[in-house]
Amino acid sequence: MKNIHFTYILLFVSMGLFAQNTLTYKNNALLTGDSTACREIQFVDPGNAGPNQIWDFSKIEYTGKSPVSSVQPASTTKTSGVQDFNMVLKDSGYDYFMNSTGNNLEERGYVNKEKKMTLSYSEPVVKMRYPFSYGDQFSEPFTGVAFFNENYRIDFSGTNTVSGDAYGTLILPDMVIKNTLRVKSVKKGLQINMCGSTEVNISRYSWYAPGFRYPVMIVSIVENRYRGGAPEVTKTAFVNTQQLHDGSSIASLTQGSPIETSDVSVILFPNPFRDKLSYNYFLRKQVAVSIEITDMSGKSNVRLLKNQIQSEGLHSGELDAVTHNLAPGVYYIRFTFGKQVVVDKVVKI
């Protein structure tokens, strides 16, 4: 009975080490007074959905553009047709009128003075609900009316669907971030004016990292299809790692930081494992690699790799418990990368 109890304690601790990131109002809601400068990058494919993903964006290219967005208090003068907003998000020439509460974030309308366009929603666009984590999803309709040059009317309607579609490790040129949650939003709408109709499909992928309030990376795909013709597609991508953080993410590696800036980074899953343990590691330079499994006493059970020269980039492998006769219990997997050693605890159930 004591052995069973001890095993469950080990499982509980190990699962806690690999807890997924959850978005909350306290940690991730828009804050008035905040201002961020994203770095635009060349468009990259957003990658796969699902658990334990590894998104290798270590080779992204920056365009040199750094658009600035800011969150400001609601204006005392209400914009015509827009109701019940408590802050304004200024981004790329647009003033988005947002209503942020402890439960959700809504877009109530927007204004673009340069384009002479104003939009107000009778049914707002629900952008986020709190708390929100992997596997969560909601879909809400929206309805609005826009005016161009004050008298040219455009009717909007559609559905916005938001899902926590993936989690895993995000690899950027200067850091590796574990426990990253990807949120996918798909806004499908129809614009109707006196000249015809336009179908709009906006897909947006946002990666949220522990300790950062706003997404550290965003990929957007916008498709406009006028009168059923061929779609006009606009693709953009941004990185925002220079925003303020709560400090916990930049702890040293020995303190279990989810963000690593060293020459190597190791990802293990699932942990605990039953039959097979997958391991991935990212190398920033060519180095000799050794991988060894030891038990709690330090006795070597399995040597998977010995002094193999491997190139820069992402590498992967698998530990088969049956092949190596590993009984249920606690083990250490030791990675040696040149002179650097990384040791992780794993549980075989």
Give an account of the 3D structure:
The chain is mainly beta and 349 residues long. The chain has 2 domains: 25-239; 262-348, Macroglobulin (MG2) domain (Immunoglobulin-like, Sandwich). It contains 2 helices and 22 strands. It has helices at residues 2-17, 25-28; strands at 35-37, 39-41, 50-56, 68-73, 87-91, 94-100, 104-112, 117-129, 137-148, 152-172, 175-193, 196-208, 217-226, 232-239, 259-260, 264-269, 276-283, 287-295, 300-310, 313-320, 329-337, 340-348. The strands form 3 sheets. It has a 15-stranded mixed β-sheet that branches. The radius of gyration is 24 Å and the shape is elongated.
Beta strand %: over 45%
Instruction: Choose one word for the global shape.
Output: elongated
Helix residue percentage: under 10%
- Give helix and strand order, one letter per element, not per position: HHEEEEEEEEEEEEEEEEEEEEEE
- The class by helix and strand makeup works out as mainly beta
Q: What would you report as the Rg, rounded to the nearest angstrom?
A: 24 Å
Largest sheet: 15 strands, mixed
Number of spatially distinct domains: 2
Helix segment tally: 2
Query: How far apart are the first and last residues' alpha carbons, in Å?
Result: 16 Å
Please, what is the average pLDDT? 88
Number of strands: 22
Uncertain spans: 1-18, 247-256
